[in-house]
Amino acid sequence: MSAFSDIPQIQYEGPQSDNPLAFRWYNPDEMIEGKSMKEHLRFSIVYWHTFRGTGADPFGPGTAVRPWDDGTDSVENAQNRARVAFELFEKLQAPYYAFHDRDVAPEGSSLAESNKIFDAVADVLEEEQKRSGVKLLWGTANMFSNPRFMHGAATTCNADVFAYAGAQVKKAMEVTHRLGGENYVFWGGREGYQNLYNTDMKRELDHLGKFFHMAVDYAKQIGFTGQFLIEPKPKEPTKHQYDSDAAACMNFLRSYGLENHFKLNLETNHATLAGHTMMHEIDYAGMQNALGSIDANTGDMLLGWDTDQFGTDYYLTTQTMYYILKHGGLGSGGVNFDAKVRRESFEPIDLFYAHIGSMDAYAKGLKIAAAIRADNAIDGFISKRYSSFDEGIGAKIEAGSVGLADLETYMLEKGEVSPNVSGRQEMLENLVNKYIDRV
């Protein structure tokens, strides 16, 4: 029985369409910079917010009406939910999805029972993938919800919890591999500390490094060749998470010899919690050859926590897609909608409105970013701004052929610094407005 029988497959109708169940900007086959929109964006829908989120918050229970869910943790209910999920994926023309192990399969009374349940649901996921052609962008293990992880998973002070986390990741990797997952993600929700008085930070980080090396080794054993990803976040639920931003992650990876095995899965709301813009995080990861994937959402600037809202701001999506294009795209990653409808948007159709709007926003952002790049409007200005390093003393500085004494000799002869090029921030912001208006 169809869960969305009254909703057709969402089609592209163009910018003039007034149909809320149609794409205005996302045309999967439209070519941009030599690739289709579908190839550039690689849209993915998350299982957790979309099919396990209920609209609950700290002040009240869930509000969402989900006719397909009987409210139990039975295997049959989990399997039925998976079938409903693929109906939504197909109707949104989403080529990918992503999950945590405990999203798709409820936890049993023991690790063995949990693994058995996971396998039973994975059977249905595999059937639905083969039937629909929808692929798994990435899998991961939820090592933050169960109370056993109160002190962390790989960074716990309890060796048995570390062992349980390893066993859970092993199984999640096996299922991800079985389902053809193109990536495997680590989000260390509890990998951090609340207070240093009770924390051995070096020991915890050493353990985290060992844990990741175990994952790399096991991937080789089972033949999993997908990309490992770390998702940075600075705080919440812990006060200080070890994977706080892109720079902290890269420092950690290099310190433990993992930089050749991991890239980053960046999220907009996590970037802003870290005090950065999403384009900062993408550009930093890109210049480190570590841009892997993105979680596409946004936060509310009036609220100080991770609200995971759907992104519909053209400025945000333009900036995001501009820097993704700058660094050659997302590779095996994708634009993953780690976003949830608001508590008040409780009807199933709201899931469609939310995804359609954000898919359109990223598609338009892609078009705007490509237009700016085609005119070399920003990169051309940046090149001119730094042109003093293209020749003379600047070229020697970049080549490493001069030292401080040479710089002193140069400046004693030159006498004074000439005025530099204006930053032209306001002009560039106006320029982006022009392209947003034009596309």
Automatic annotation (TrEMBL):
The keyword S-adenosyl-L-methionine does not apply. It is found in: Cytoplasm. Gene3D superfamilies: Divalent-metal-dependent TIM barrel enzymes. Mg(2+) 2 binds at residues 267, 270, 306, 308. Keywords: Carbohydrate metabolism, Cytoplasm, Isomerase, Magnesium, Metal-binding, Xylose metabolism. GO terms for cellular component: cytoplasm. It comes from the Bacteria. Binds 2 magnesium ions per subunit. Its EC number is 5.3.1.5. One of its GO terms (biological process) is D-xylose metabolic process. It catalyses: alpha-D-xylose = alpha-D-xylulofuranose. The keyword Cell division does not apply. The active site is at residues 100, 103. Its main location: cytoplasm. GO terms for molecular function: magnesium ion binding; xylose isomerase activity. It is an enzyme of class 5 (isomerase). Homotetramer. Belongs to the xylose isomerase family. This is Xylose isomerase.
